[in-house]
Amino acid sequence: MKSNFVINSVLSFFLLFCSCATVQPPYKISDGSTFETKPFYPKFNWKTTPMYYMFGDPIRVLHSEEVNHIAERTDFICIEKSHGQGQLGAAELGAKHEVAAFKKLKPDMKVLFYFNSAYAWPFTSYNENFTHQNINNHPKLKAFLIENPETKALEERKNVFYFDVLNPNFQEWWVNTVAEGVEFSGADGAFIDQMHGFSWLRQDKAQDVQVAMGTMMKALKEKLGPDKILLGNNANAKLAQHVFPFIDANMFEHYGNDLLSKEKLLKDWEDMLRISKAGKMSIFRIGVEYDSLAVSDPSFYKGKFRNERFAKLSKEKLEFYHACYLIGAQPYSYFQYGWGWQLAHGSLMDYLELQKPLGAPKGAYHRTSTTGWEFTREFEHASVWVDTETRQAKITWH
Fold it and tell me: Contact 47/360 with Cβ under 8 angstroms?
């Protein structure tokens, strides 16, 4: 009996190893074409809802049980901008710590380093001097920031300065800095936030700003090398048209209730198809802090019980938002869900529906009428119905 147990255990391990080592099968896009994957992309399958996680805790690094929780649910994550700064002193140290922790548990995990292309967040050692206390002592860095043309004061939002992407010296510094952060942390690429370059502050140079953003992303992709992931936030938007050719993945960040209108969701699904046909990945990010119910009730955002309120709201709204993702999902489309960017904003929640067997889609979504807003789609183990006008949905698992 003991020998049989050992033989069976060895055989099971061998089969598991072989299954992990095999090349992933080609995946069909909803129009019938084949998704052209790249060897440096994360593993993808339709067994359950494909998830992407992005989180940070400005005070500390993750506990081992938190690493396990997230690693059980995804192969694709990003460490947010201020993670671990309080404990380790700089955000790149927090990213490095988590890259090592996840890679130890799951070597094929894809972990991204965060950097912003518009806001000069002072959380890493690379940009710690972009503060009111320090900036005047660093004239080279100060020249990288946008000034108000009339007052000559630095433009800012809540004490965070704005990068000037039109400055070629800034572009060079920024590309080298992001690449250094990725290399130092051991990350598999970078998540680049805020692709707009504050073009609305300089309407007469808006086109120049867009071109400059494209130049920066092209240079960054080349600097990172061909085996690193470049994920752009809302790089599908018109403002980022020059960025799109150089990214590997796009996040649909729905940062306002207006971005969840029935018209915008339909546009998202069309873009998800377009992005997939280009061989790029998508992140469909929903934050229920922008849900109409929360927006209409200011008390959601106040007090020590705000996380409990949002946790409850996120469970109540999950079926609708999950259905919105599934209607447009393509190969290498991922779902992100919660109510913010900190670790406590949903990354440690148990959403049982997101772990149910899903299976591959059987085809494209169906619009029940040319003028209506009801949509359906069939998966191997789920039937999805959503009405984006009434904001109702039903996912039937089978």
Answer: no
What is the C-alpha to C-alpha distance for residues 233 and 243, in angstroms, rounded to an integer?
Answer: 10
What's this model's pTM, rounded to 2 decimal places? 0.93
As given in the structure block, the two tokens for residue 164 are 């000037």
Task: Write b or e for each residue in 381-392: b if 16 or more Cβ atoms lie within 10 A of its Cβ, otherwise e.
Answer: bbebbbbbeebe
Number of CB atoms found within 10 A of residue 97's CB: 18
**Helical packing angle, 91-105 and 64-71, nearest 10°:** 60
Helices (H), 229-336: 262-277, 292-295, 306-328
Nearest to 56 by CA among 87, 88, 89, 78: 78
HSE-CB at 185 with a 13 A cutoff on CA atoms is 39
Rounded CA-CA distance 107/182 in Å is 17
Contact 215, 243 (CB under 8 A): no
CA 186 from centre of chain: 18
Instruction: For residue 40, give the 3-state DSSP assignment.
Output: coil
Q: Which domains does the chain have, with CATH numbers?
A: 38-355 (3.20.20.70)
- 55 beta partners: 79
What's the DSSP call for residue 146? P
Q: pLDDT tens digits for 169-219?
A: 999 999 999 999 999 999 999 999 999 999 999 999 999 999 999 999 999
